[in-house]
Amino acid sequence: MKIVAKTDKGIVRASNQDAYAVGEFPDEVAWAIVCDGMGGHAGGNIASALAVKVISDKINASYRENMRDSSIRNMLDSALTAANMEVYDMAEADPELRGMGTTVVCAIVKNGYAFIAHAGDSRAYIYDGELRQITTDHSYVQTLVDIGKITKEEAEHHPNKNKITSAIGAEKMIDIDFDEVELNDEDVLILCTDGLSNYVSSDEMISEVQDGKYYAFADRLVKKANYNGGGDNVTVVAISK
C-alpha cells in the first residue's frame, strides 16, 4: 500500500486544529484517521489529537489478520464511540474545554475494499478517473440539500455551511456513518478536512492526482488549498494500491 499525508494550518489561521494518523499492518492493510477539531481556546486541538489517539490505539489493539468485514465495521464503530466518550467526558470535566469536539473520517483498506467511518464534514473521496465523494456530510446545509430546500450548488456558498450536526465529543451519543467501497488497482482514496473541500474544486482535485504520481498527491492538494485562499487548516491523506 502507498500512503501519503500532509497537514497545514493554512494561510489565515494562527494554529492547526487538524490531526491525523496513518499506519499499515503486515498483510497489505492500511489505515488512516483524519480529524478537524472545533471549540474555543485550545479545545479544538485537544479534541482532534485525543480522538486520533483513541481511535488509532483501538485499531492497533483490535485488528486481526483474518477479520471479517462485519468485524472491521464493529471495530471502527467501537473506536469512534470510545473516542466520543473520552472527548465528551474531558469537555464536561473542564469548563475551559466545554463545547469542544472534532469531525472524523477514518478508513481501513483491505483486500481491495475501503471500510470508511465518519462523523461531521471531513470527507472521503475516490479518484478512479473521476472524483467521487463517498461520505455524506453531517451538516446543516446537507440536511437542506437532502430535503430539497437548496441545491448542491447553493450549498457550496451557504452562510451556514460549516454548521455540523454530528461530531466526536459534541454529545454523549454519536451518529456514525459507514461506507464500504471497492478499490481497483489504479484508484486513490482521499481523506480530507473541509480545508480542502471548501477551497479546492473537484476539477482541481482531479488535475492534481490524475498523473498517478502518488507521492506528490497530499502535498499538491494542500498547496492548492493554500493557493486558493487557505482560509482553514487543511489535512489530506491519500492511499493507493
Question: How would you characterize the overall build of this protein?
Answer:
The chain is of the alpha+beta class. Helices cover 33% and strands 28% of the residues. It has 7 helices and 10 strands. Strand 2 and strand 3 form a beta hairpin. Helix 1 runs antiparallel to helix 2.
Protein topology:
Layout: E1 2-8, E2 18-25, E3 29-38, H1 43-62, H2 69-93, E4 101-110, E5 113-119, E6 123-127, E7 131-133, H3 140-146, H4 152-155, E8 177-182, E9 188-192, H5 194-197, H6 202-209, H7 217-227, E10 234-240
Helix pairs in contact: 1-2, 6-7
Keywords summarizing the entry:
5-stranded antiparallel beta sheet; 7 helices; 10 strands
Spatial order of the strands forming the largest sheet: 1-10-9-6-7
What is the helix/strand order?
A: EEEHHEEEEHHEEHHHE
| Low-pLDDT stretches | none
Structural class of the helices, strands and pairings? alpha+beta
> Could you tell me the strand content as a percent range?
25-35%
Question: What is this structure, in a nutshell?
Answer:
By secondary structure, the protein is an alpha+beta fold. 33% of the residues lie in helices and 28% in strands.
